[in-house]
């Protein structure tokens, strides 16, 4: 089973700049590069080929990129998302991939967005008693280079007054009928931390639980969306994982989406929250609901021990690429544990360099090789890791597209990704969405949703 759009027919294309000048005849054929370059990412816009070997005099400082054709500065790769990511990946229908990008100034066939300072099924039953008060302890700030390359559509409101907002919400729900627009105006324009303060102020001022009041006044998708916005981000991830494994069946794509994309700190807090809020061990639940190499990959992710050093070791990238080739394409059968070891432990910038080294060794992209060597959920999990290393916003843009493509809408996935990326990189996701599908995210949301649900989604995405 292949992941939608990965790889395009004929194999997954190599990076711009490969092969080196004068060797253009090697795999893949020119013009098949379909995965958009990460905004502000690697290699630097402007082109130039990669040097034959890494520089020997060390890497350039934090001031930025070296001259065109060189490697980016350590730390210039946008890091993993901040706390507050979402769960599942419903089964995405097979699609054409990323489509043909619009014409215009481009790199690798895609326009460059301006640099910025980044389970299936019906609505889930949101629990009433999730943690109130303040959000969990904030995550450490991302590297400076990451901040420059990622941007959310929601930022903390200036002149914030939790008591005033609590009063607005109380009036919106008091008496006959509900003023949904007043509720939308508040929740779509406050950060998650500010929403936690509103929730605490509401209970102090009125002696009532805001979440219970909202549940009594709202219904359907708009209820799920608003309650998701009021969940502390770490709790939302933990709750989503629990929901994905609770009851009959397992929403494997939820497990993949969360555990394969979060930072070490986020994963550790999710694991602790899962234990404290649900009284369960997440590793035991994963072992009970999954098996084989997919189970091992998820358990590896739960450790939160990925190398997060932003400096790339090009020699190690070459060695890992050779190791992966010998574990897959270079032998009969597949050494799955080798793939698990490399993809679960290396930093995302390191994996990006490994992908590039692999394309030179194998004349095939690593994503294409994984497509040939694996199947099912473990294939999806391994690809998710690599896709996030290559271009995280494009990965989430694809998930959003397939949540709305075709008959019906996978509202839980749509809600999850919009909410969890809203303060991290939804600006970049919107840009990639337009490049990949020749329509704006807002246009597709407007055509697939309606009523207050549509208004709130569009308010979050900044339309």
- Sheet with most strands: 2 strands, antiparallel
Helix content: 40-55%
**Separate helix tally:** 20
The gyration radius over C-alpha positions equals 22 Å
The tally of strands reads: 2
Biggest sheet strand order reads 1-2
Outline, from the CA principal axes? Answer: elongated
Structural class: mainly alpha
Residue fraction in strands: under 5%
Please trace the helix and strand order, writing H or E for each element: EEHHHHHHHHHHHHHHHHHHHH
What do the pLDDT scores average to?
A: 77
Contiguous runs where pLDDT drops below 50 for at least 5 residues: 1-34, 39-124, 132-148
Q: State the end-to-end distance.
A: 36 Å
Task: Describe this structure as you would to a colleague.
By secondary structure, the chain is an all-alpha fold. Helices cover 50% and strands 1% of the residues. The chain contains 20 helices and two strands. The chain has helices at 144-149, 162-173, 180-187, 192-206, 210-217, 220-230, 233-245, 252-259, 264-278, 282-289, 292-302, 314-327, 336-345, 348-362, 366-373, 376-404, 411-421, 426-437, 441-448, 451-461; strands spanning 106-107, 110-111. The chain has a two-stranded antiparallel sheet. Helix 6 runs parallel beside helix 20. The two termini are 36 Å apart.
Which structural traits does this protein have?
disordered N terminus; 463 residues; two-stranded antiparallel ribbon; mainly alpha; 50% helix
